[in-house]
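Let's sit down with a protein and look at its sequence and fold side by side. Please make up or recall a protein chain and show it to me in full. Label the sequence line and the structure token line clearly, so we can match residues to local backbone shapes. Go ahead whenever you are ready, and we will take it from there.
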Amino acid sequence: MLKNLNSAVIRIFTLVAFLQAYLIDDYKLDGLTKDKPYVVGDEEDKWAFNFRKAIPTCEETKKACESENCNSQKIFNSTETTTCYCFGLYNMETYKIKDDGKEITFTYKYEGNEQNVLRTTVVHFICSDIETPTLEYDLQTETKLDVTWKHKQACPFKGKPESEKKKEQPAEKKKVSFGTVMLIIISCSAALYFLIGVPICFFMKKRGPELIPFWPLWCKFGSLVVDGVKFLLSPCLRKSKGYETVKS
């Protein structure tokens, strides 16, 4: 029994963690891929990188850098020669998102055909509010390159993009007119009038049209309305007496 309970608790926590986990779609990564690669370093030691796009040739020699799919190049310049090594292929990308969503670790690998060469570039894409993105690299070993990339776009955006929010905004509510308000009040009053008055008349042993409260008054309602209209219009309908003739 206790084992089953522990198993259920573990599953619940796993499900909650999964639901709270960040996805790659929670980040705006558009615009990170450039026409020209990012180049960091000095004249003797450089690193060239492009996000999710191959660098077709070496930035220094303009020749192929071991692979046409290479997007991470390590360039060594000496007095005699320039050597370009591929440290990762863009189509070999893997990534892992940190639990708090503030860092994505991109990993790029390159496997050479000769001497079982395996080189790796690990890019730590870190959330930062700095205006100018920074790229720093560290050649930890001859086969591993560690990069720190601080950028605003490494922060997950809150909610949905503005374009989607505009689509989901409900239409503006129209204001209710005075006539509509009066119609609602009259309808509700009439409903209450009949719902309360008819049962009272029924218990008073009235039947037929007499169930309508104040039935005699409603029978005269039409004529009363006509009399009221005539009264209001009477000043306009009076005929002028004119002038009387004076007899000599």
